[in-house]
Amino acid sequence: MNTTTLTTTRQPEELTFKKWLLNIFRAVKTVSKGMGITLKYVYGVKPVTIEYPEVREILPENSRSRLFNDAENCISCYQCAVACPVDCIYITATKRDKDAPKLKASNGNPIRLDLHQYTIDTALCCYCGLCTTVCPTECLTHTTDYEFAQYTLDSMKYDYLAPDIRAWRDRIVK
Ligand code: SF4
Ligand code: SF4
């Protein structure tokens, strides 16, 4: 049985003076093109990033970020909790004593229930805004605060009757 073996050997290309000059020209052209793009982005293009946290984005007034309930004007109607598609609003309220002083929300709605708990689990909230839409006293609003990351899911439950919540709100909402 005959076997034929084919071998090819590539001869090195001869480097002429003309090719040497062409190589140099191509190298200079490629580096110049790359540096041109770099310089364009360094000097000619406005940056799209900011130096956070030294510089902060100012969100539009109507942005839907962290919720705030001005609990003094909440009439415990539960409408927000009913509207919430993910059931992340927890309210506990009891009927006010009939002899207790009459209370009204800032828009004149009578407050007939004592609010004992108003908590929103922001880890579940999808920021749809439905709860704020149905609130009859407009005490539940979105703020523009987007800096409320926490280390645990439990810390994402915000108690709007807690004493520090108004301090937080005054810091954020001007
Ligand atoms: S914004 Fe939407 S998901 Fe979040 S608490 Fe309100 S209704 Fe629920
Ligand atoms: S809809 Fe408004 S007033 Fe009613 S329970 Fe919710 S926050 Fe309070």
UniProtKB/TrEMBL annotation:
Coiled coil: none
InterPro entries: 4Fe4S_Fe-S-bd (IPR017896), 4Fe4S_Fe_S_CS (IPR017900), NADH_quinone_OxRdtase_chainI (IPR010226)
Ranges for domain 4Fe-4S ferredoxin-type: 65-94, 116-145
One annotated GO molecular function: 4 iron, 4 sulfur cluster binding
GO cellular component: membrane
UniProt KW keywords: 4Fe-4S, Iron, Iron-sulfur, Metal-binding, Repeat
PANTHER family xrefs: NADH DEHYDROGENASE UBIQUINONE IRON-SULFUR PROTEIN 8, MITOCHONDRIAL
Protein name: NADH dehydrogenase I subunit I
